[in-house]
Amino acid sequence: MVSPSPNSCSALCEEEFLCRCHQNHQGDAQVAYDHCRSELDEQRGPLANVCTSGCQDTSLMAAAAKGDVVCPLAASDDLSPPVVPDFAPPPETFEETLSPSTPSFSPPSQAVQEVSSNTVYCFP
């Protein structure tokens, strides 16, 4: 078995390319290949989530241009969408949510005493 080139497209990229993109653009195999390859290189659509722009075709991806290959998952019933890693940033801390323009709280310098329910007096 020949080991893949370091710049080869990943197995997940190959799966998305063959089982979703290429398979969804039925008709001429070369036209479908060119469309999917363009999406991959321009980092558009679902291929952008799983492929590295400019990665080298796997042998199955290259064969798809001639119509010589179908989705390798077609033999199984597992055509579920690929798992895409979550790239959400870490949760913010309280200090990070305060902007420099956020006024800080400071207790009043004068003592406040409530004399009645409607009147407030301040004493130094």
TrEMBL record:
Residues 82-92 have a biased composition (Pro residues). Residues 99-109 have a biased composition (Low complexity). Residues 82-118 are annotated as: Disordered. This is Uncharacterized protein. It comes from Cymbomonas tetramitiformis.
